[in-house]
Write a structure and sequence with these properties.
mainly alpha; elongated
């Protein structure tokens, strides 16, 4: 597994410290499952009373992710991002967690969502998310997609040696030696 690129500095810009993964361990007993259901019900009531409560959205996202409901978990996080854009760091951390668990396709999708939310190639978080998306795609053996992302990074900042190295590494994986050099 390749080391992820740059996350600490980018997250600091958004006022958060980097945490590799903040999802809960999956419930493994009836008592924990009951507490989880009660907590979800309580958080649903909080959101019903205050639809702009991004903290409750993030907590519901964590609970869904802990239960293996990635789609629902990410949807809650995206709702929290709509309320407070700095919550994009949570989605970045989810992507990091997927990557660390070798779930490269999920990581690539999540890093892509981060880049879509940030939408500014001059932003460090956008560049880090794109770079890490390319790494995840490369690990998932989706070389054409990884190359497209790497070349987009080169296009955005052709002076960044890491971007050229990334593209070169993908070309090597594709057995395209002339372009790898």
């Amino acid at each position: 597994m390749t080391q992820l690129f740059g996350s600490i500095g980018a997250c600091a810009r958004y006022g958060n410290t980097y945490v590799a993964s903040s999802t809960l361990a999956a419930p493994d007993s009836a008592a924990v499952a009951e507490v989880t259901r009660d907590l979800k019900a309580t958080l649903d009531k909080v959101i019903a009373n205050n639809p702009a409560n991004d903290a409750a959205m993030l907590q519901l996202g964590d609970l869904e992710l802990a239960e293996g409901n990635e789609q629902a978990g990410i949807e809650y996080v995206e709702k929290a991002i709509a309320i407070a854009p700095e919550n994009v760091v949570k989605l970045y951390n989810i992507a990091v967690g997927f990557y660390q668990r070798n779930e490269y396709e999920k990581a690539a999708r999540s890093f892509g969502l981060v880049a879509d939310h940030v939408a500014d190639p001059d932003d460090d978080l956008w560049r880090d998310a794109m770079y890490n998306r390319a790494l995840a795609l490369k690990e998932a053996k989706k070389f054409e997609d990884a190359l497209a992302v790497a070349l987009k990074l080169v296009e955005v900042n052709g002076e960044e040696a890491d971007y050229h190295s990334l593209a070169s590494g993908v070309y090597l994986q594709m057995k395209n030696l002339p372009k790898a050099s």
